[in-house]
Amino acid sequence: MARLCSSDIYRAFIIGGASLYSEGIALSPSSSAFVDRMLLTRILSPSFEQCDVFMPDFLGKVSEKDDKIGWKRASHEDLQTWVGFEVPEGTQEENGVHYEFQMWVREP
Prior knowledge:
By secondary structure, the protein is an alpha+beta fold. It has helices at residues 18-25, 76-83, and strands spanning 37-45, 71-73, 92-94, 97-106.
């Protein structure tokens, strides 16, 4: 079995749940598992108030070293360039659910 080194990994993804998101977002830039961007499908409406799990408020998050983490929303063009394919822009609608694809990048 081949063994992977950290230099062998081009991109890694954290795909839920809420506690994994919180822990990943809080990692310091000096961490080998540093999270530098987030790809979101943001639900705009309805509010789904009956749901009990939500994406953590990453805009006000503090790192494991008690440093405030700054995030900036990337342009739609930057999102498409990073993922390498066309992504629908603006508000989308499916079965009465309005959503938008977003990418957020950690500020230096």
